[in-house]
Amino acid sequence: MNPIDELLTRGVTQAIDQENLRRRAAAGAPLRIKLGIDPTGPLLHLGRAVPLLKLRAFQDLGHLPVIVIGDFTGRIGDASDKDAERRMLSREEVEANMAGYMAQIGRILDMDRVEVTYNSDWLGTMSFEEVAHLANHFSVAEMLDRDNFSKRFQEGKRISLREFLYPLMQGYDSVAVRADVELGGNDQLFNLLAGRTIQRAYGQPPQDVITFGMLEGTDGRKMSTTYGNIIAMADPPEEQFGRVMRLKDELIIPYFELTTRVELGRVTELRAALLSGMNPMEAKLVLAEEIVTLYHGLDQARTAREQFLKVFRQRELPDEIPEIQLPPGDRTIQALLAEAALAPSRSEAGRLVRGGGVKVDGHVVAEVTQTVCIGATPLLVQVGRRRIARIIGSHG
C-alpha cells in the first residue's frame, strides 16, 4: 500500500471528500491539517493519540499539523458524545489541564514542524453580532437531527442553547486557521461538517474531513477521562504495559491499527495468526511493547515486559507444581509432552503446540519440532492453564 492510500484508509471511518483529498495530498503542496484538542483533563490518552498518529503520518509526507488547543471551547463543553448536559469549566481548570499538553503531544509529533494555536485568541474577542452571524447558517432542526440531541429531546432531557453554539465555534476555528483538512472521531462528524459550511460562508474552500472510530477503553466503553478507563500517553511504562495487557482480546487488532505505527503487513500477519489459534496473550505482549516503545523507548518497553511476565508468572503458577523425572537427553517438544503424560498422544501434543498453548519456561513454543534438553536444571512446562510440571533429568 502506498503512503497516501494508507493515510486515507488506516483506521479511517470516513474521508470527505476522499478523492479530492487524495489529489491534494499527491500534488506535493503542503496541506494544513487541523486537530482540535479541548483541555477537559490533564492527561492525553490513547484515544486522543489516534488522530495525533494520523497527524504524524501527514507530517511525514511534508504536510503541516495545526493543533488548536481549545482553551475557549474547553470551557464551553462539547456535547458530541454526551447523553446529558456537560458542565462548563472554569478558566483555571482549563489552564491547569493543558499545562502538560505540549510535552505529551511531542511524544508523537515533531514539534519543530507544528503550528500550535489557542482558540481563545479569536473566540474570546468575538462580538455578539458575529456570533449571531455564525448562528444564521444553521437551523434548530439541523441541530436536533444530531443523534444525541434527538435522543435527549425525545427523552425530555435538557439541551442548553450553549450546546448548540459549540459546532459553530469549532467550525469557526477552521476559518481562523485556514484548515485544509480536519481530523476527529466519528462523534465529531457534525462539528467537522459545520467547519465546511462556515468556511464556505467566509469565502474559503471547504476543508476535507477524516474521522475515526471510537477507541474502547479498559472496561469496553469508549475511552474517556470521565469513565476512568484510559491508557494515558504519560502513564509510567510498567503501568501502561499492564493496562494494555488487560484489554479484551477482540481489541488487539484495532489497537494495532489505531494506536501503533506497526506496518499494516505485520498487522495482517498477526490477525491471521490469531485466527489460526495464536495465544492472544502473545499478540498482546507485542502490542503492549509497541505502545510503550512509542511513548517511552525500547529499553523501557523491554523492562516493562520483563516485569509484567515476572509478576504474571508468580500470580498464575500454583503453589505446588508436580515434578516429573525423565531420562536425560534431547527431545522434541511433541515427544516430551507425550512422554510426560502432559498430552494424551503425540498428535494431540502437536495440535496443542500449533494452537499456541504450550510454554517452556514461560515462552510459547512455536514449532512441534522444537528441541528441549532434559537435564539437571528443571524445565517448567505448561500446557494450557491447568497442566503444568517441572521436568528434570533422572539420576539413574
Describe the model.
The relative contact order is 0.10. The mean pLDDT is 89. The protein is elongated. Strand 12 and strand 13 (387-393) form a beta hairpin. Helix content is 46%, strand content 15%. The protein is an alpha/beta fold and 396 residues long. The strands form three sheets. It has a six-stranded mixed β-sheet with strand order 1-6-5-2-3-4, with helices on both faces. A five-stranded mixed β-sheet has the order 7-13-12-9-10, with no helix packed on it. The protein has three domains: 3-212, 3-Layer(aba) Sandwich (Rossmann fold), CATH 3.40.50; 237-316, Tyrosyl-Transfer RNA Synthetase, CATH 1.10.240; 323-393, Structural Genomics Hypothetical 15.5 Kd Protein In mrcA-pckA Intergenic Region, Chain A, CATH 3.10.290. It has helices spanning 3-9, 18-27, 46-60, 73-76, 91-97, 101-105, 120-123, 128-135, 140-144, 147-154, 161-177, 189-201, 237-245, 252-259, 264-275, 280-296, 298-316, 333-339, 346-354, and strands at residues 12-16, 32-37, 64-69, 115-118, 181-185, 208-212, 323-326, 329-332, 358-360, 363-364, 371-374, 379-383, 387-393. It contains 19 helices and 13 strands.
- Tally the helices: 19
Strand order across the biggest sheet? 1-6-5-2-3-4
Low-confidence stretches at least 5 residues in length (pLDDT < 50)?
none
- Kindly, what is the distance between the CA atoms of the first and last residues, rounded to a whole number of angstroms? 61 Å
Structure summary:
With 396 residues, this protein is an alpha/beta fold. The chain has helices at 3-9, 18-27, 46-60, 73-76, 91-97, 101-105, 120-123, 128-135, 140-144, 147-154, 161-177, 189-201, 237-245, 252-259, 264-275, 280-296, 298-316, 333-339, 346-354, and strands spanning 12-16, 32-37, 64-69, 115-118, 181-185, 208-212, 323-326, 329-332, 358-360, 363-364, 371-374, 379-383, 387-393.
